[in-house]
Design goal:
Layout lengths: L1 E4 L6 H10 L4 E5 L12 E4 L8 H5 L4 E4 L3 H5 L4 H7 L4 E5 L2 H4 L6 H9 L3 E6 L10 H7 L1 E5 L10 H13 L6 E5 L7 H12 L4 E5 L1 H8 L5 H12 L3 H4 L4 H6 L6 H7 L6
Parallel strand pairs: 1-2, 1-4, 2-3, 4-5, 5-6, 6-8, 7-9
Length: 272
């Protein structure tokens, strides 16, 4: 049985659907989840992974686990080692971040999983294509995309590709002890993302470039300062590794990752 934590998120929701369609026995876990949000036959568990006293039910019967820890988990003092211990020998697939490999983020979660799990695989995605949802209110209201560093290119990844890689790793052998960097198939700038969204909507969008200070002020409304500064550094001053297209999506799936234009077409309704 496969336990999927973060099952209502951009990756977890798609992963649950993919695994269920493949005939796997799945338990979908989130702080707020109901049976109506998952395919028929999927067990749901409402749980806070930061609460050690509720972890036994979460992982009961699991032999494989997709582990996603959120900012809420960190803020509540969650302990990844406790979560892995509660999984009781299950194979762990951890959704981490490319920033761990490039030194932007601390490696504590990865280290805890590697030290405590008998079998582990780490997924390190770069920026998500779905981060573009933050532009939806302004696009719907004014047909404008406002973002900093308009011409800096990064190979953002479609969450559907992360879910597909996670499903393959959970269902196949041969991935133990590996860390995969997950990116899209090409670097793309915010200005080009705006153009692709406009093409998906059938009308042009205006791009308004924010200064770094303007972006910092906007991001500080929903991110802690350390995350704001790390994000601005990646967006405005990426390393060569952060701009490089990784071969790992194609290595695992046997096909290239989806483009941002494809993501925009599939999600155009959110911007209308």
């Amino acid at each position: 049985m496969i336990v999927v934590t973060g099952a209502t998120g951009n990756v977890g929701r798609l992963l649950v659907e993919t695994l269920a369609a493949a005939g796997e026995e799945v338990t979908a876990v989130s702080r707020r989840i109901s049976p109506s949000e998952v395919p028929d036959g999927v067990r749901t568990v409402r749980a806070d992974l930061a609460r050690a006293d509720g972890l036994k039910e979460v992982f009961d019967g699991a032999d494989r686990v997709f582990l996603l820890t959120s900012g809420e988990f960190l803020g509540a003092g969650g302990d990844v080692a406790e979560v892995v211990a509660a999984a009781d020998g299950a194979r762990i697939v951890l959704l981490s971040s490319q920033g761990v490999g490039t030194g932007r983020h601390a490696p504590a979660y990865e280290e805890a999983v590697k030290a405590s799990s008998p079998e582990w695989t780490v997924l390190r995605p770069g920026g998500f294509a779905s981060n573009a949802f933050q532009w939806a209110p302004a696009i719907r209201a004014d047909r404008v995309v406002a973002a900093p560093f308009g011409d800096v290119e990064l190979p953002v990844i479609d969450p559907a590709d992360i879910a597909d890689v996670a499903a393959a790793v959970l269902r196949e052998s041969g991935h133990h002890g590996r860390s995969y960097v997950l990116t899209g198939p090409e670097p793309i700038s915010p200005r080009r993302q705006a153009a692709d969204l406009g093409a998906a909507l059938g009308e042009p969008l205006r791009f308004a470039e924010l200064s770094e200070d303007e972006a910092r002020a906007a991001m500080s409304a929903f991110m802690p300062p350390v995350v704001v500064e790390a994000t601005l550094a990646i967006l405005g001053r990426p390393t060569e590794d952060e701009q490089r297209v990784s071969p790992d999506v194609e290595k695992v799936l046997g096909r290239p990752g989806r483009t941002f234009a494809d993501w925009a077409t599939r999600n155009a309704a959110a911007f209308k």
